[in-house]
Amino acid sequence: MLSRPEHLRHFPTLGAINPPRAAIVLSWMLGIGIGLTLALLLTVPWVQTAAGAGRVIAPNPADRVQAITALVQGRVERWYVEDGQEVREGDEIVQLVDNDPLLLKRLEAEREQVEAEITAAQKAVRVAEGEVDQIKGAVEKGYVTRRNFEAAQIRVAERRARLAEAKAKLARLEVSMNRQSAQLVRAPRDGRILHINAATGSTLVNPGEPLATLAPHAPDRVVELMVSGLDVALIRHGYPVRLAFEGWPAIQFSGWPSVAHGMFDGQVRSVDPSAQPNGLFRVLVEPVPGRPEWPTSAFIPLGAKVRGWVQMETVTIGYELWRKLNNFPPEFGRSRQNEHGPIPPSRPGTT
């Protein structure tokens, strides 16, 4: 029989108690587990991130979905495309006709008349200028008075004014004819017809009214993320971003980006200086040169949803849990400006 410890000789009842073996094992497991947890919290690095959700957009307005509008007032006569059809730049989209089918012929006839007026006015100006030269010589010889010479100059000015008026009328006619000749609407660039907004025949359209919707091919894409104001103050241009596209299989560990799968790289392009109506700030993310390209627009079209994580400082897991529990912003030590600009964030295992 084992001897009792010296300090239990005076406590016979306590010394008679034998704790269960399971309790002893459990206590050792709890002690070791707490020690490992503390070591994990105090030593394992964690990359702080500013998470946000958004969508894929085109930064260039010409690459965005756009409306094909009517340039003149008229009636839809014929469509050359259907919903979902691909078109090339300059392809015919729709033919419009004016309510007056003889309008172009009448404008052409009026143009011929104005051109004749211009020709006559030019001849009249030349004749009047010749008269001025003749009267000027006569005035120098004393055959006529200077008043006759001034009257001749006035006639030249009047005929030049009529010539200018006729030319202005011709310019207005050409503008009207050019507008009417724009009744054939063409595709502004390569793309796909998403939706046709007008019918054929009796549909009357006005200038600027949308006729169809075009989605351009192969646009340049960026990601628009909406980030909380708690984090946006520490995000700088060029910060790395990890992206998970909608419909693309991905496994994300925000604190350990090296073990993530199916994620794509990006970098902060710009941060809006003011909040959106929902209180979030917009962060634009662009692809990183030299890194794997984003999925093509056939898989990730404009408007596709995206989840993004802007990578910031590297801290311990314990600090990050403490920060989250207290709702504090990310660590800002390395995000402060130095004399050469903002310092980029560190990665796990780097200094």
UniProtKB/TrEMBL annotation:
<keyword id="KW-0175">Coiled coil</keyword>
<feature type="coiled-coil region">
    <location>
        <begin position="104"/>
        <end position="183"/>
    </location>
</feature>
<dbReference type="InterPro" id="IPR050739">
    <property type="entry name" value="MFP"/>
</dbReference>
<feature type="compositionally biased region" description="Pro residues">
    <location>
        <begin position="342"/>
        <end position="351"/>
    </location>
</feature>
<keyword id="KW-1133">Transmembrane helix</keyword>
<feature type="transmembrane region" description="Helical">
    <location>
        <begin position="21"/>
        <end position="47"/>
    </location>
</feature>
<keyword id="KW-0812">Transmembrane</keyword>
<keyword id="KW-0472">Membrane</keyword>
<protein>
    <submittedName>
        <fullName>Biotin-lipoyl like</fullName>
    </submittedName>
</protein>
<feature type="region of interest" description="Disordered">
    <location>
        <begin position="332"/>
        <end position="351"/>
    </location>
</feature>
